[in-house]
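User: My instructor asked us to take a sequence, write out its structure as tokens, and then describe one feature of it. I'm not sure where to start. Here is the sequence I was given:
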Amino acid sequence: MKLILVGPPGSGKGTQAKMLIDKYSIPQISTGDILREAVKEGSPLGKKAKSLMDKGSLVPDEVVVGIIEERLKKPDCKGGFILDGFPRTVAQAEALDKILDKMNLEIDHLLNIEVDDGELLKRLTGRRTCKNCGRGYHIIFDPPAKENVCNECNGDLYQRDDDKEDTIKSRLKVYHDQTAPVVDFYKKKNLSRTIDGLGKIDEVFTRVTGAIN
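Assistant: Let's start with the prediction itself. The structure tokens for your sequence are:
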């Protein structure tokens, strides 16, 4: 099972990815994780990525694509994989096609978890974190017993900067601008599956596996 998983911040994509890993026994390949892994292993591409990251520069497509190719050749990917955070652009999707052609493989499905922006704002702006112990809460879905006070340690709860409305709106705009062309690319190949991300976790997972089957 060779999957690409996309979904905006707050869509529950990470939770669904974990459930897919358990069900299909395939690895999740996240761009950030494999970049860190390549740097740690000290491969030539890893060294190149590290020198760029140390300067605060973006790692260019050819390096990211090369590291993805190295990762897909590892034995644990023989039964399939879930790509998370890649491809981010149509150019990356085309590069992925070339890699998979060389390996006589092809993507089975792009799974696109959709949740409307209003719901995502509600989910993300409601998050609160304890300043003391770091425990997370949600003012609607998982509120503390006492307003703005942690149940565990009585620490003050605060809203992280990346959970503030303006920041989230910017992140969602970037996500939509980047992801829409990639979804269209796979739609033309009849590989894109849209999943309604509203509802309980198990309900969404039933839709995900239904789309795969």
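For the description part of your assignment, you could build on this observation: The first helix runs from residue 13 to 24. Try explaining in your own words what that tells you about the chain.
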